[in-house]
Every structure is written in structure tokens, then in C-alpha cells.
């Protein structure tokens, strides 16, 4: 899961920057600027999106494997075994997230992300051959890319790019259920049950994609040698004009500890926890919920896909609005509120159809939370070292959210999981409160800066994004 934080992160008057209007210091004309940005889009987003999508599918396919026979083969109905498998993945995630983010700039994105992905796929293949739930738990522990994206774009371009990147993951995750069902039809091939083929085939695909990624993934803007010098300088200049951090600053222990004193990064970490908790709950438990409220195993796998289409639409629409109006927190809060409403409908609806509508509303709303929070955080950070630390602490919050999902959605309470539903409700209400507190603080700071001429983050004309 360490892959996630490397692939997903990134008020001056940036209208001139984005449109290439006369008056900017860039040497390229308007048409050339647009071509360079589109070229960066095509080189950066598809491969990173594909790599992240594959990793997301790999680590959230446990619920699909569960209803495809893994429950019987490994005895996962006994005690809290399935809960342990869900939670143990996040232990290594918590331990290695910050070290991994510190390694990334040193060895380069292509090398590190490809290494992580190939290792991830290899372990996944091993999971397909496990014969004990304890062995499966060890594999899950071993499993346990925004940062690069946010380094290439200005602050109010990054929301749409993160959403496009995330939509790839959403849509592919939706169709992963159908793909998993197709793989279960291999049941009996070479004497292996269908759920084993889910892990084996998806692990092999992961290795292939990440091997290709080694040749495709680009470096940070100031170091990338694949762009002509003039185009590379254009990218660096526009980022420096927007937030002043196109070049990397050295990460030292003193600097890292200084960054960790900023209370806002812990608020964002909790916001990401609140966004990821229901997301993981749906990933791991949605097929089980659908089976429990009256659908067959096959139906539950196939019906897991359609809500992701709505999720993709809502995710991009909200990202477009947040970039256009330069506002993050309130839109995130609305999505969090709709998510818990959907989960309550799923738990307490009076008919299977109404509960399935709750899945649509909850899962459709939750997906914007992750790119939304990451863009919110990235927009208010102005140096590489703090961006790396904040990305890591944010994703640590996400790991805690995953652990809470595994613990709160207890197997003994399937298929309605009342404890998980109300824990999610409470955490999302706290997250909304934190967003309100942070937005009020930043609004006051912006107001004071405009009235007194104070330089926020030591950058002339820079303001917090609410």
C-alpha cells in the first residue's frame, strides 16, 4: 500500500499561468504551453493511474475472494479470522509509509514504484497458493501516487488531474468485480479453487504493468530529462510562480520534525482517515453485504460494479467544481455527509432495492473524498520536503481508517454491520467539524494577509485554499 502515497498528491493570480496570457515571463507561446501540459498529462496520468488502479484492485479483492470460496477453504467464518486478514495489511503500511516517502526522491519514481509494484504482485500470486488463513495473514501483512502528480501541476490544475487519476481506479475497481467473477470460472483448473485464480492472475497482471511502468514513469520536473530544456524550464517556472517549490529541498531530520509541528497536517490526516474508512468498508464488505440482503454470490459480485460508475461521475464533477471555484473543504464535507447517509440507508432500509440504493449513494459519494483531501492538503503546502511528510502522514491516517474498517465491521454483525456504520458516522462528523475549524483559521489568515500585506508561506500574493 506504500505505492498509494507515491502515486496520488500535488493565492497567486494563476489565470495568466494557465492560459498563457501576455504578461507572463514564459518563453513559450500560448499554443506551445498547452501542448507541453497535454504532453505531461499523457505521460504522467495514464501509467500512474493504471499502476495505482492495479494496486487498489489487488489489495481490495479480499471480499470478492471471500464470496468465491475462500471463506470455506480457509475457515474464515471462525472467530475474527476475516477481520484479522483485513486489518493486518495496515500494520506494515503504518510502519513503512514515511520511510518509503523519504526513499522515493532519492531512488527516483520509476525505480521505486516499479519495485513496489512487482513485489506487490509477487506476494499476491503467493496468496493464491495459501492453504491456511495464518499464511494468508502473513501475505497480507507483506502487502502493506499522489505525491508525484502534485509536483507537476499548479494548485488549481491538480484537483481535476487527481480526479482523472482516481476515476481510473474507481472504474477499474468496479469492473474488477466482473473480472473476478470471470476468474472464478477457472475453478478446478489445475486443481485450484476459483478464488485462488483471482489472486494469481491479478498478481501476474500487476507484475507486467509495473515492469512496463519502469520505462514510462517520469521523474520530478526539475530532474526530468525527457522534455526539451525550454519545455522543462517552462514547467519549473510556472510551478515556482504558483507556489515556489518546483525544485526539491533536502529532507533532513530537523526539517521533518519542524514540518510535523504543523497541526493542519494532522487534521488532513484525520480527514483522509474519514474518507478512506467507508471506502475500505465498501471494498471489503460490499459483496458480503449484498449476499446477506438477498442476492446470490454471483449477483453480489456483478452488482458490485454499477455504483462505481456513479462514483466516477460524481468524483470528476466535484473535482471540476473545486478547481473552478478554488474551494476544497466544503465540497469534501458534503461528500462525507452523503456517504454516511448512504451507509445508514444500506443498514436500515426496508427493502433490498432501497438498501442497494444506499450502496449507490454511499459508494458514489465516498470516492471523491480521497482525491479531494489530497488536493486540499497539496494546495496549502509549498515545499517538497513538507509535501513528502504530509503525504506520508495523510496516508498513515488512511491506514488507520483501514484498520478501523476491519475492526468495526465485525463478521458477527454481517450483513448490516451496525457497529461499523455508527463508527463511520461518528468519525465523518468529527472530520466535517475539523474542516470547518481549519477553513475558519485559513480564512482569517487570508483576510489578515490581504489587509496587512503579510506574506503567507513567505510567498508574495499566496493565500490558503479553503
TrEMBL record:
It is a multi-pass membrane protein. It comes from Aspergillus pseudoustus. The keyword Zinc does not apply. The keyword Transport applies. The chain crosses the membrane at residues 80-98, 110-129, 165-183, 195-217, 265-285, 305-322, 329-348, 354-376, 388-409, 421-440. Keywords: Membrane, Transmembrane, Transmembrane helix, Transport. This is Major facilitator superfamily domain-containing protein. InterPro entries: MFS, MFS_trans_sf. It is found in: Membrane. PANTHER family: MAJOR FACILITATOR SUPERFAMILY (MFS) PROFILE DOMAIN-CONTAINING PROTEIN, PERMEASE-RELATED.
Amino acid at each position: 500500500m506504500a505505492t498509494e502515497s507515491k502515486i496520488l498528491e500535488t493565492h497567486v493570480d494563476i489565470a495568466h499561468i494557465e492560459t498563457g496570457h501576455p504578461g507572463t515571463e514564459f518563453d513559450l507561446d500560448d499554443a506551445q504551453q498547452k501542448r507541453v501540459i497535454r504532453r505531461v498529462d499523457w505521460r504522467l496520468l495514464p501509467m500512474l493511474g493504471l499502476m495505482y488502479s492495479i494496486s487498489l484492485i489487488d489489495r481490495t479483492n479480499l471480499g470478492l475472494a471471500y464470496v468465491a470460496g475462500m471463506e470455506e477453504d480457509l475457515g474464515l467464518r471462525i472467530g475474527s479470522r476475516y477481520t484479522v486478514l483485513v486489518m493486518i495489511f495496515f500494520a506494515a503500511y503504518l510502519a513503512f509509509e514515511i520511510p518509503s516517502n523519504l526513499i522515493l526522491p532519492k531512488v527516483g519514481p520509476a525505480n521505486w514504484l516499479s519495485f513496489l509494484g512487482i513485489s506487490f504482485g509477487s506476494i499476491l500470486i503467493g496468496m493464491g497458493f495459501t492453504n491456511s488463513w495464518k499464511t494468508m495473514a502473513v501475505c497480507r501483512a507483506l502487502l502493506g501516487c499522489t505525491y508525484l502528480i502534485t509536483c507537476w501541476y499548479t494548485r488549481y490544475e491538480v484537483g481535476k488531474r487527481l480526479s482523472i487519476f482516481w476515476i481510473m481506479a474507481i472504474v477499474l475497481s468496479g469492473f474488477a468485480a466482473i473480472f473476478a467473477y470471470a476468474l472464478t470460472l477457472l475453478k478446478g483448473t489445475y486443481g485450484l479453487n476459483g478464488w485462488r485464480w483471482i489472486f494469481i492472475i491479478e498478481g501476474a497482471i500487476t507484475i507486467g504493468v509495473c515492469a512496463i511502468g519502469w520505462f514510462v514513469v517520469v521523474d520530478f520536473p526539475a530532474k526530468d530529462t525527457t522534455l526539451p530544456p525550454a519545455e522543462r524550464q517552462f514547467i519549473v517556472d510556472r510551478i515556482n510562480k504558483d507556489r515556489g517549490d518546483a525544485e526539491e529541498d533536502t529532507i533532513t531530520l530537523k526539517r521533518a520534525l519542524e514540518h510535523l509541528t504543523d497541526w493542519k497536517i494532522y487534521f488532513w490526516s484525520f480527514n483522509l482517515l474519514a474518507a478512506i474508512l467507508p471506502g475500505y468498508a465498501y471494498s471489503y464488505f460490499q459483496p458480503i453485504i449484498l449476499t446477506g440482503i438477498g442476492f446470490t454470490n454471483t449477483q453480489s459480485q456483478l452488482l458490485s460494479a454499477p455504483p462505481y460508475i456513479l462514483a466516477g461521475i460524481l468524483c470528476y464533477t466535484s473535482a471540476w467544481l473545486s478547481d473552478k471555484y478554488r474551494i476544497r473543504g466544503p465540497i469534501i464535507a458534503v461528500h462525507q455527509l452523503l456517504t454516511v447517509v448512504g451507509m445508514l440507508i444500506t443498514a436500515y432500509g426496508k427493502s433490498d432495492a432501497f438498501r442497494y440504493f444506499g450502496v449507490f449513494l454511499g459508494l458514489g459519494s465516498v470516492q471523491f473524498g480521497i482525491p479531494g483531501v489530497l488536493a486540499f492538503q497539496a494546495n496549502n503546502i509549498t515545499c517538497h520536503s513538507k509535501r513528502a511528510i504530509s503525504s506520508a502522514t495523510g496516508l498513515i491516517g488512511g491506514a488507520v481508517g483501514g484498520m478501523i474498517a476491519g475492526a468495526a465491521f465485525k463478521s458477527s454483525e454481517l450483513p448490516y454491520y451496525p457497529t461499523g456504520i455508527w463508527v463511520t458516522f461518528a468519525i465523518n462528523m468529527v472530520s466535517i467539524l475539523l474542516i470547518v475549524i481549519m477553513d475558519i483559521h485559513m480564512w482569517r489568515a487570508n483576510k489578515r494577509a490581504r489587509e496587512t500585506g503579510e506574506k503567507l508561506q513567505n510567498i508574495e500574493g499566496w493565500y490558503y485554499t479553503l
